[in-house]
Design goal:
- This protein is α+β, with helices and mostly antiparallel strands.
- It has a single domain, classed as Roll (Thiol Ester Dehydrase, Chain A).
- It has 3 helices and 7 strands; from the N terminus they run βααββββββα.
- It has helices spanning about 40-55, 60-65, 140-150; strands at about 15-25, 65-70, 70-80, 85-95, 100-110, 115-125, 125.
- The strands form 2 sheets. The protein has a 5-stranded antiparallel sheet, with helices on one face.
- Strand 4 and strand 5 form a beta hairpin.
- It is globular, with a radius of gyration of 16 Å.
- The two termini are about 25 Å apart.
């Protein structure tokens, strides 16, 4: 078992998850017909956007509240290649954090269910003047309270 990307405690609510399916397109592969390594962040983005839409925590939800959430960290672990025309899934997981940040984990699996790629991103929350928020904005705090009492998921 690999080391988890994010620490959790027994008091943390369960992570929020969603899974989406994709097929590797021709424009995403290199001369060897395998997905070019630089494409994986966009796969992570596909999962992150879907998860945000599913739970009401998408980019526009933040933006409408005057908040932006830029990526501070991006990490990718490559295990197996994905090839042109291959079906795969992207599992996006939002982990609880007591800090004012979004900790997303991503797991890509091929049609056989094998993990091909995993990784994570960390996003900070900023106001429109690019100040890092140290306290959750009200709409995000309400979301966190609903998550903590099990209303999400």
């Amino acid at each position: 078992m690999k080391k988890p990307y994010f620490r959790s405690s027994v008091d943390d609510p369960p992570a929020l998850r969603c899974i989406t399916e994709r097929v590797v397109r021709f424009e995403e592969v290199d001369a060897l017909a395998i997905v070019w390594h630089g494409r994986y962040p966009s796969y992570f983005e596909d999962g992150r956007v879907l998860l945000g839409e599913q739970y009401g925590l998408g980019y526009m939800d933040f933006y409408q509240q005057g908040i932006v959430a830029p990526i501070k960290q991006l990490h990718v672990d490559y295990q197996l290649p994905l090839r042109f025309g291959e079906s795969f899934t992207i599992e996006a997981i939002l982990h609880w954090s007591d800090a004012v940040r979004l900790n997303h984990e991503f797991i890509l699996r091929n049609a056989a269910g094998e993990v091909t790629t995993s990784g994570y991103t960390v996003q900070l929350l900023l106001d429109k003047q690019d100040n890092v928020l140290m306290v959750p904005p009200p709409f995000y705090e309400q979301f966190r309270q609903r998550w903590q009492v099990g209303e999400l998921g």
